[in-house]
Amino acid sequence: MRTALITGASRGIGRSIALELGRNGYRVAVNGLHEERIYAVVEEIRQRGGVAEGFCANVADPSVVSKMVEMVTARYGAIDVLIHNAGNLQDRKCGLMTDPEWNSVLDVHLNGAFYCIQRVLPFMAPQGGDILLMTSTAGLKGSVGQVNYSAAKAGILGMVWTLAAELRRDRIRINAIAPAALTDMTRPVIEYLMDKHAKRNEPLPAFWQVGEADDVARFVGLLLEQQDPDLTGEVFGVNGSQITRWQKPLPVLTVNGGAEDFFTAWKHREEKQ
């Protein structure tokens, strides 16, 4: 029986993934910040015949993450799967954003991913394993009013591409998922936009027409079943039944002639558009 540690698993996408893996025979370590929510998920997994334990811990605190990993491994002996799903939002335009708002989002999404990965690796390397990180289209394309969130999610991409090469020899795969789903975190924004566009008699933009958390969970379950060792360093978009594979950025204009020639080519490029 494999063990999966899932951060931010007390609600939303994390909860759906925890329930899915519980159904699939995993021992599930359910992490979150609120004990009552954590243990509601644990109890639901157990009632369905699964195995689960709850671990209340703030992933932004490295010492707390260390203790959590120690507790999980003391209970189960190893961690086969790490899914870093914990997240938060502190949306504001860059000029108005406070230092705490910037740091809070980077601490949970990006620093939290690093703390969890680094602490889990010693308990994963002997038998290999899987690491899944949640990114976002905000990290792939940017998102106005979310410079902290976009930066954190873009950092996740660099982490995935680097660690895919670094951990391959240890048979550890690492991939990222950019989910689009109606959750507690996205619902306020989507409902606001639905109301806004409805008042204008306009359809909701396709970007905001999202699937469910269970769609993401099903994808995760199937991804973990794949035996392909080359299935690493990938970024997948999941929106309902629509699955997208994103590729690394590619150079689109290279000029061997110095800055002057480059900007001449740049102007010609713009004229062709």
TrEMBL record:
<protein>
    <submittedName>
        <fullName>3-oxoacyl-[acyl-carrier-protein] reductase FabG</fullName>
    </submittedName>
</protein>
<dbReference type="InterPro" id="IPR036291">
    <property type="entry name" value="NAD(P)-bd_dom_sf"/>
</dbReference>
<dbReference type="InterPro" id="IPR057326">
    <property type="entry name" value="KR_dom"/>
</dbReference>
<dbReference type="Pfam" id="PF00106">
    <property type="entry name" value="adh_short"/>
</dbReference>
<dbReference type="InterPro" id="IPR020904">
    <property type="entry name" value="Sc_DH/Rdtase_CS"/>
</dbReference>
<dbReference type="InterPro" id="IPR002347">
    <property type="entry name" value="SDR_fam"/>
</dbReference>
<feature type="domain" description="Ketoreductase">
    <location>
        <begin position="2"/>
        <end position="180"/>
    </location>
</feature>
<comment type="similarity">
    <text>Belongs to the short-chain dehydrogenases/reductases (SDR) family.</text>
</comment>
<dbReference type="InterPro" id="IPR050259">
    <property type="entry name" value="SDR"/>
</dbReference>
